[in-house]
Amino acid sequence: MDVLYFAWVRERIGLPKERVDTSAATVMDLVRELSAREDRYALAFSDLSALRVAVDQELSDFDAPLGGVREVAFFPPMTGG
Amino acid sequence: MAMAAPEIDIRVQDAAFDPGALLSQFTPHAARAGAGAVISFTGLVRDLPGATGGLSRMVIEHYPGMTEKALHDIAQQASSRWSLGPVLILHRFGALTPEQPIMMVATASAHRADAFLAADFLMDYLKSRAPFWKKEFTADGAAWVAAKDSDEDALSRWR
């Protein structure tokens, strides 16, 4: 699946988008998998209360299942308007 | 307003826009659709008087694809709650400077209450449910604008 990062999450991880081959069952499993890779991921995901997640471009939760999902995005709370 | 499915116009663009010109197009269009009231809100980039030299620029990042869907969904929710004519939401991304318009919403209805409430609702939802992130640049450096708890609290009054 494609994993996207925005705003300071993108800056901390150092890229806007990557292809991830994963068997993670939920968003939380994916977060654990990414955090285990490198410090920059662990740092970006260190406080989940400061993060939001979208699954296939819909706002979602960290316990959301990932079966059949094509795109997951991580970002801080939004500041539009 | 006894109308067909309301027309929703969503624009996400990096180009600058003229709120007056947009309103001049929206108003007669709303009138032809039977509206007796038009409400518009324009958000502007504020300077940062506390920062050295003020705000040099603001950069808005967004999530192409999700942004358009989220704005359309928010407009759809407003149209199902209130009796509305056309709805317009325009939001810029990219680099902006102080005093420039960032975004605009316009709503229309037969009587003013529906259009006022819908515009207020759109703004509350747009602030914390549409995937935009603001970064402010000053002589001291750059910082992402933090979301406010009050923005999230504002949504509770619509539930």
TrEMBL record, chain A:
Q: Which InterPro entries match?
A: Beta-grasp_dom_sf (IPR012675), Mopterin_synth/thiamin_S_b (IPR016155), ThiS/MoaD-like (IPR003749)
Tell me one Pfam family matched here: ThiS
Coiled-coil stretches are: none
Q: Which domain of life is it from?
A: Bacteria
The protein here is known as Molybdopterin converting factor subunit 1
**Annotated source species:** Pseudooceanicola sediminis
